[in-house]
Amino acid sequence: MREQYLQEMGITRWVRREPDSVVVGNVVPEPAEETTEVELTVVQTPDSHMVNELDWPELQQQVSDCVACDLHASRSQTVFGAGYQQADWMIIGEAPGNEEEQQGEPFMGQSGQLLTAMIEAMGLKREQVYITNILKCRPPENRDPVKDEILACHAFLRRQIELLQPKIILLLGRVAAQSVLDTDALMKDIHGKVFKYKETEIPVVATYHPAYLLRAPGEKRKAWQDLQIAMNIVSGEAT
Ligand code: SF4
Q1: I need a surface site. Which of 103, 129, 192, 213 has the fewest CB within 10 A?
Q2: 204: β partners
Q3: Quick one: pLDDT band at residue 48, thresholds 50, 70, 90?
Q4: Exposed/middle/buried for 134, CB within 10 Å: 0-12, 13-18, 19+?
Q5: Ligand 1 closest atom vs CA 72
Q6: Residue 57 lies in a domain
C-alpha cells in the first residue's frame, strides 16, 4: 500500500536518513526571499489571555468571529483546521486558498491530494492527523501572508498546539516554517533539521509545501527524507 502512495509522490525507493542536527531555538538568519509589501492596518489583536482559556469549540467560534486583521473583510468563511483533535501529528500550512475557503477545510484540491498521499506514505490516514494553517482567513489573490496578519492570528495557532499537544509538528512551506520558527532562514537551511516549538519540548520539522512539490516534483525526494525524520521522532527512533 505504501509503495502505491510513494509512487504518487514520485518516489520509488525508501531512503533512510538521520536528522542532520538537533537545534533548539532559531537558526542563523539569512536574507529573506523577495516578498510583495502590502500595507495593512491591524484592527485589534485577539486577547491571548482569553484565547488561552478556550476549549476546541470555543476557540473555533472565536476564530469565526475574529476581526483582528484586515483579512476578515474579504473572507467568506474562516478555515479553522480539520482532523483528529488528539492526533500525534499536527501539520501546519500557510493560509487557505480559494478552494479551502469554499469548503472550510485546509488543503483541498491538488495540493490537498498530494498532502494526503504524503500522509498515507507515512502509514497514516488523513483523519488521524490534525491539519491547520498559520492564518485562518484567505489572503486575497493568494498573496503571501504579511507579518501583522501572522502576528494577529498566532494566538489561535498557539492555543491549537496547546490543546492538541502533538508529538510532532510538521510545517509545510517557507512561510509557515519562518513564521512558526520565528526565523528568516530559507527552506534549504531549515528542512531536514529538528527544532522545538518555542519554549516547549514539542519537536518541529519543516518540509516543502505540496503546492511547491507539484511545481518542482524533483524535490519530492527531499520532502520524503524530511517526513522520515519526523516519523523517526514519533516512533522514538530519534529525538
Ligand atoms: S486571519 Fe486570523 S487574525 Fe486575521 S481575521 Fe482571520 S482569524 Fe482573525
Answers
A1: 103
A2: 169, 195
A3: confident
A4: buried
A5: 5
A6: yes
Q: Is the CB of 137 under 6 A from ligand 1?
A: yes
**Rounded Cα–Cα distance for residues 168 and 174 (Å):** 18
Atom of ligand 1 nearest to the CA of 95: 1
Q: How far apart are CA 76 and CA 121, in angstroms?
A: 33
Relative to the CA of 75, which ligand 1 atom is closest? 6
Residue of minimum CA distance from atom 3 in ligand 1 = 153
Nearest CA to ligand 1 atom 1: 137
In a domain, 32, yes or no: no
| Cβ contacts of 47-50, under 8 Å, gap ≥ 24 | 47/155, 48/155, 48/158
Atom of ligand 1 nearest to the CA of 145: 1
Domain-embedded: residue 52: yes
The verdict on the CB of residue 87 being under 6 Å from ligand 1 is no
Q: Is residue 34 part of a domain?
A: no
pLDDT tens readout for residues 206-222: 999 999 999 999 999 99
Residue corresponding to grid cell 522545538? 196
